[in-house]
Amino acid sequence: MKKIALLVLAAMTLVLTGCGKEKIVINGIEDLNGKKIGVQGGTTGEAWVQDNVTGAKISSFKSGIDAALDLKSGAIDAVVLDELPAAEIVSHNPSLMIIRDPVFTANKEEYAIAVKKGNEALLADINKTINEIKASGDYDVLIKAYMPVDGNITVPANIVSATGNNAVKLGTNAAFPPFEYVDGKNIVGFDISMGQYIARTCGARLEVVDMAFDSLIPALTSGAIDFIAAGMSVTDERKKNVDFSIPYFASEQVIIVRK
């Protein structure tokens, strides 16, 4: 009887040991090989993982927040995402943390606004707006409002733009704080405020159109929107399909993992 009990105990120990998950340790990009990685669909983070990580099992999500939820549940091992949205996610999820890698830091990405190929008039207005708000100090006001040192974002008052039937349509993906996100019933963020300045330069009212990130360029090409302001990095591949403004922000990719 005692022998049987010992055998049963040994079997239970093996089962319990087998059920325990091995802790995944990720300290940098070299540890991503062979891991289950979450990315936001259509982003440079997704493209980087596809091109640089060996044996990765990639899961694409509509937003970084959705990817983080799967990371918390253990369905994936890490998320590769732009630094500021990643920081916002981690600030609300204490079980997660950010890993920075020197390779990402040395290869910062530039955000710019995209217009349809050949739309030189709108592109000129956008470039003019970016230069003007930087010269006037309004750009710094937006930086301090949406990217404060203490983390407490204060959405600035709406920039006064024209009214009437003349509108410019800003396409975005409102799941990328602090650049664009939903606050109550409104879509706000750094890019949206910039869009208001652009609309004012154009003598038009701003209309914000929210959609999946990977739908933005097709929507621009079809004429459904006039420009894209969505924390979009300038890449050679994207330049084949859109024209970019002068850059207005520099960012880097980071890795989100469980603590």
Q: In one word, what is the shape?
A: globular
Strand tally is 15
Strand order of the largest sheet: 2-1-3-15-4
Strand content: 15-25%
| Percent of residues in helices | 25-40%
Supply the CATH architecture of the largest domain.
Answer: 3-Layer(aba) Sandwich
Features:
single chain; 259 residues; alpha/beta; D-Maltodextrin-Binding Protein, domain 2; five-stranded mixed sheet; 10 helices
What does this entry look like structurally?
- The protein has helices at residues 2-19, 44-52, 64-73, 83-91, 102-105, 120-136, 138-146, 190-202, 216-222, 236-239, and strands at residues 36-40, 57-61, 78-82, 96-99, 109-111, 114-116, 167-172, 175-176, 180-183, 186-188, 205-210, 227-228, 242-244, 249-251, 253-258.
- It has 259 residues and is an alpha/beta fold.
- It has 2 domains: 22-108, Periplasmic binding protein-like II (D-Maltodextrin-Binding Protein, domain 2, 3-Layer(aba) Sandwich), CATH 3.40.190; 113-232, 3-Layer(aba) Sandwich (D-Maltodextrin-Binding Protein, domain 2).
- α6 (120-136) crosses α8.
- Mean pLDDT is 90; it is low at 1-20.
Write the layout of secondary structure elements.
Blueprint: H1 2-19, E1 36-40, H2 44-52, E2 57-61, H3 64-73, E3 78-82, H4 83-91, E4 96-99, H5 102-105, E5 109-111, E6 114-116, H6 120-136, H7 138-146, E7 167-172, E8 175-176, E9 180-183, E10 186-188, H8 190-202, E11 205-210, H9 216-222, E12 227-228, H10 236-239, E13 242-244, E14 249-251, E15 253-258
Parallel strand pairs: 1-2, 1-3, 7-11, 7-12
Antiparallel strand pairs: 3-15, 4-15, 5-14, 6-12, 6-13, 8-9, 9-10
